Amino acid sequence: MEYTDPMRHRLRRIEGQVRGVLQMMDEGKSCRDVVTQLSAIRAAVDRVIMYVIGENMEQCIREEVENGGNAEKVIQEAIELLMKSR
To answer: d(Cα 59, Cα 67) in Å, to the nearest integer?
Structure first.
């Protein structure tokens, strides 16, 4: 699997959000504000997971079809990964 620059960029953005939350905690910001940011981080991580699985599934299906295999197996594995991530 090739991990693309957009994937890395998304994770770097999340990394910045986490640093921001740590700073908010150091500054004693309200629980509501901290939880709001943590929820945004969780949503961003979920989107990265979906993006990585989607990209991986596309590559795996292509390889499976080119090798005369069954694409359904790859799709099932992707679904299992998505379920595990939740």
So the answer is: 12
Direct distance between the N- and C-terminal alpha carbons of the chain, in angstroms, rounded to an integer: 22
d(CA 53, CA 55): 6
Residue 7 has a pLDDT of 92
pLDDT tens-place string over residues 13-72? 999 999 999 999 999 999 999 999 999 999 999 999 888 888 877 887 888 788 887 778
Contact partners, residue 48, CB within 8 Å, separation at least 6: 7, 10, 11, 14
CA distance 5 to 41: 19
Looking up tokens 């939740």, which residue turns up?
86
**Strand positions, DSSP E, 2-79:** none
In this predicted model, which residue has the larger pLDDT, 49 or 74? 49
CA separation for the pair 79, 56 (Å, rounded): 12
